[in-house]
Each structure stands twice: as C-alpha cells, then as structure tokens.
Fold this sequence. Notes:
The chain is mainly β. It is about 0% helix and about 60% strand. It has one domain (about 5-45). It has strands at about 5-15, 20-30, 35-45.
Amino acid sequence: MRNSVAFGLVFIPKSSKAKNDQAPFYARISLNGERIDLSLQLRIASNLWE
Length: 50
C-alpha cells in the first residue's frame, strides 16, 4: 500500500507588512494541503525581490 504525501517549502516576503521599503521574510511550509507561515526574523529590501 502506498501513501501519498505532498510537501512544499517556499520563501516569501510579506509586502503587506513592509516598513521603510523593508519586508519581513517568511518560510511557508505546506504538508498535505495544510499550510503554516514561519517568520525568519529577517527583513529584505522590497526592490531586491520579484
């Protein structure tokens, strides 16, 4: 019997929470359709991310 597991990891800036053109950086982890966002305690310049 096979089990199907879906896993994903994406790094994203949250531009909605940006201050002084610096956005907080998050890791989004998905496992079988459930999602959680973890703050990496970093900020990134908005113009460096597309």
